[in-house]
What does this fold into?
Amino acid sequence: MTIKGVFIHPCIRSYRGGFFSKLAESLDLDIIESDRPRSGEHVIQDRARAIKENGLAPIKRSRVSLPKVANSNASILLSLNLKYEFIIFSGFVSFPFVLLCIPAKILRKKIYVFDELWSYPSTKKYALIRPIIKYIGQKMIDGHIVAGSRSNIFSQMFFGKNMSRLTVPNTHSNYNSALKLNSSRDGDVLYLGRVVEIKGLDLLIRGIAATKDTRLTVVGEGPFLPHCKQLAIRLGVSDRVKFEGACESNMVAQYFIAHDVFVLPSRLIEQQSQQLESWGFTLNEALSYGCKIIASDMVGGGYDLIKSGFNGYMFKSEDIDDLVNKIELSRKIVTSPCQISDDLKARFNHEANAKSVVEFIGKSFE
It folds into this structure.
């Protein structure tokens, strides 16, 4: 495709690097990062690795900063350059979309939004701009590229069914592991990720306490970690809950292939910037290494990734009894790690996603 466009994304990360790379093979596409890494050194390193491994060359960030309330870099203004025939925004509640959508449309650019949102933010600032976002979205978006079935349902409810849509479920870049996906796993449960309240590690610890002998390994750090450690002591399961702390990115695979089940027990917390798990990329990563997965119904990716009884289960968030039941049921799943991994790679991959997006955009210019 010879048309030239630009993708505005907060920050290039490994889980999207392959997607951008595949898009660039068929589109004349530039990438503008609207934000800077804010989650520590590991994010900075992950960004550098994703750019190098995928041969990406994002437009250099501007030294000029927009007001802090915007949380965006002035480089986003470069997307209005007349050489771009289309813009892909990352999220319709993002500041770049709200700021640039109208001038971009005045300049006759096609506008697409790539989004994984499946519940409108409940904070006051988003409530105030909701009518504006809904109006400009309905009038000016040429296509909504949604990352999963829950996002698709929400998009239809929010913008109406007449908008042009494409569903491209999120996937992970790291599918080429040389590690052996053996079947001799010890049956232990793994939690790997940031330890913050919305991730629901406390729910999982309560679930472990309600089982007879299930052991849990916790890999990660965060402000909610002290509470979770005290909870494990209080419930008398400190001998069955092992806190490993944070790990280097090159050690993540070792944890996944050593455990039978990975659990992401996220919850809904309203009135904060992240109120639920839009997708949950650790589910993709766990499956790629052959883990069975259990996710709460507040994890968007679970609705697309989980094939109940084949590679895992979903449970009702905050329902400890349901969580315990799904942990017990997961032990009865006979699917091998290799089958779980192969199924994921066949259903979710960057090549298929990029091809669909290229065709979707191409139809708009016919």
